[in-house]
Every structure is written in C-alpha cells, then in structure tokens.
Amino acid sequence: MTTGTVKSVRSENGYGYIAGDDGKEYYFHRAGVKRPLQFDNLFGGERVKFEIEANAEGPRAVQVTKA
User: Fold this and answer.
1) Strand pairing of 47-53 and 25-29?
2) Burial class (CB within 10 angstroms; exposed 0-12, middle 13-18, buried 19+) of 56
3) Interatomic CA distance for residues 48 and 28, integer angstroms
4) What mean pLDDT is predicted for residues 13-20?
C-alpha cells in the first residue's frame, strides 16, 4: 500500500486528490473510500493509505483508508 495526505476534496462532485508520499498526485472517488473512513468527513490534511489502480485518465487511488 502507498501512503499520502488528502490534498483536496470536492464533496459536491464526489472526488478528491491525494498527495502521495512518492511525490505523485492521485485522484480518488467517493466509491474508493473504505469504512470506517467516510468521504463526507474528509477536508484535507488527513493521512491515508491506498492502492493504486490504472485508469484511462491516469493512476487512481482505491481502497483508501486511514493511515
């Protein structure tokens, strides 16, 4: 798993971005957040861990959980 920090969240659109500790930025969708972490409670600055999935628009963070 990769770790990083939630950079921004667009709650009205259901997505956000994570600044990975590897120096890359990852898109994530509401559906990629695993409980007990809740998408609607993310505001930025939270430490998370996640898997990276290939996507047509670039790498995407999935299985996002609290680090």
Assistant:
1) unpaired
2) exposed
3) 12
4) 97
The model's pTM: 0.93
Burial letters 25-35, b for 16+ CB under 10 A, else e:
ebebbbebbee
Query: Could you tell me the two tokens for 65?
Result: 């959980």
How far apart CA 7 and CA 26 sit, in angstroms, is: 9
Cα dihedral value 63, 4, 44, 37, nearest 10 = 30
d(CA 20, CA 44): 13
Tokens of 10: 């667009």
Read off the amino acid at residue 50: F
* Closest of 31, 30, 34 to residue 64, by C-alpha: 34
Question: What is the per-residue pLDDT across 39-54, written as a single tens digit (0 to 9) for each?
Answer: 999 999 999 999 999 9
